[in-house]
Amino acid sequence: PSRSFYGNNRLLTSQIVSYYEPINQCKKELPEYFNFASDVLDEWARLEKDGRKPANPAFWWVNDEGEEVKWSFEELGSLSRKAANVLSGACGLQRGDRVIAVLPRVPEWWLLNVACMRTGIVLIPGTSQLTAKDISYRLQASKAKCIITSDTLAPAVESVLPGSQFLKSKLIVGQGSRAGWLNFKELL
């Protein structure tokens, strides 16, 4: 049996497992370096563009009001490269640096996640339910150089920032602006 998505056959679990079986049996060479964003997402975008893979959304988000965001693999790849440029350029981050994201599950959360994979930046996800004490602890324990949050959560996050000695940049996701914060949407 196959699972269809808008009439297109998708990889089944058994097909995915069979692809990795030679690797598990040491019959297929593992790459020295593996990056999910470039080795999987970008490859799927290329296969779709070449017509060798049916077009399916890579990302499909719907909020409680019914608003949708839908990205193809090519769009997700392009947007994640732009987000990676924001993190490495405007935020001054490098491979191995840590970023704390205190965001609700908005499309930018996923975009930043892929951008971090792409650049080798370590993403430390945090929910919007974290208290100031939780955020402060995570900042100090992780030695994060950047914090990312929404415009609505920024005041709570900002209350603990003076004690963070490693923080280099603050990135806000949303429509509003805040003194001392970079705006992700503007930079993107």
UniProtKB/TrEMBL annotation:
Pfam families: AMP-binding. One of its GO terms (cellular component) is mitochondrial matrix. One of its GO terms (biological process) is acyl-CoA metabolic process. It is an enzyme of class 6 (ligase). InterPro entries: AMP-dep_synth/lig_dom (IPR000873), ANL_N_sf (IPR042099), Mitochondrial_ACSM (IPR051087). It catalyses: a medium-chain fatty acid + ATP + CoA = a medium-chain fatty acyl-CoA + AMP + diphosphate. One of its GO terms (molecular function) is medium-chain fatty acid-CoA ligase activity. The keyword Ligase applies. Belongs to the ATP-dependent AMP-binding enzyme family. This is medium-chain acyl-CoA ligase. The gene is Acsm3_1.
